[in-house]
Target: DUF6314 family protein
Amino acid sequence: MRDARPETPAPATTPVPDLLAFLAGRWHVARTAEDRHTGTRGHFTGTADFTPPPGGGLRHHEEGTFTWDGVARPAYRTLRWLPDPAGKGSARVTFDDGRFFHDVDLRTGHAIADHPCSLDLYRGEFTVSGPDLWSVVWRVAGPAKDLVLRTEHTREAPSTG
Model:
């Protein structure tokens, strides 16, 4: 007998055969953050620049304004996306200091990545919706955390192809 639950439609995706080539450039970033324990909400708006640093891969530098509980502050972060020898559609993502964050493979245009952090688990769902649009939803669960972070990246200079 077939399961009676309705099927969740798969997100519309755009395959990414070369992840680092896809990410290169400047993106507008819009993020919402929700603490489901307290009901507090916030948002971030800014830019993310993906540029080639010495040594290969891409440097992902994000900066803008994060507003949390009505208080706006400057915010930034830097990550590094390193090519995965297994294929151009995947990368290893590290923090700026070199610590491992997660692996991601977007050859199908969709991926799930996990990052255990102390007693918390960060689970990211990445979706590429077109040549100039991708998103990630991080759900954070742990003894003291219940967060949902939704981020949409829109290319600032749309691709021509």
Remarks:
- The beta strands are 25-35, 41-51, 58-68, 71-84, 87-95, 100-105, 110-117, 120-130, 133-141, 146-155.
